[in-house]
């Protein structure tokens, strides 16, 4: 299951995301998205979990959890749209 996490503090790193989700099941990957030019976090990322049940539990427990003074938004990631225009 691929999970989208937004409203992250700018100090949160990929390993931190993995640590947040690990108590709910096997995390196969975690990635905080960074700006190409500055390398600074863009405030969102993705976590991939080995099974849907663990992913759904993590979503229900972590959505709204406060980390570094910010309430995380945690949802199932939508598939990337084909032919979408990106302006950032």
Detailed description of the structure:
This protein has helices spanning 14-21, 52-62; strands at residues 2-6, 27-34, 41-49, 66-67, 70-71, 73-76. It has 88 residues and is an alpha+beta fold. It has a single domain (2-76), classed as Alpha-Beta Plaits (2-Layer Sandwich). The chain has a 4-stranded antiparallel β-sheet, covered by helices on one side. Strands 4-5 form a two-stranded antiparallel ribbon. It is globular and about 35 Å long. The termini are far apart. The mean pLDDT is 91.
Molecular shape: globular
User: Could you name the CATH class?
Assistant: Alpha Beta
In round numbers, the mean pLDDT is 91
Sheet with most strands: strand arrangement: 2-3-1-6
Total discrete domains: 1
Q: What is the share of helical residues?
A: 10-25%
Secondary structure class reads alpha+beta
């Amino acid at each position: 299951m691929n999970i989208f996490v937004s409203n992250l503090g700018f100090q949160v790193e990929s390993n931190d995301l993995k640590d947040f989700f690990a108590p709910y099941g096997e995390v196969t990957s975690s990635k905080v998205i960074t700006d190409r030019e500055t390398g600074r976090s863009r405030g969102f990322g993705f976590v991939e979990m080995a099974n849907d049940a663990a992913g759904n539990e993590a979503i229900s427990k972590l959505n709204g959890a406060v980390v570094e003074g910010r309430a995380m938004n945690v949802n199932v990631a939508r598939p990337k749209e084909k032919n979408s225009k990106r302006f950032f």
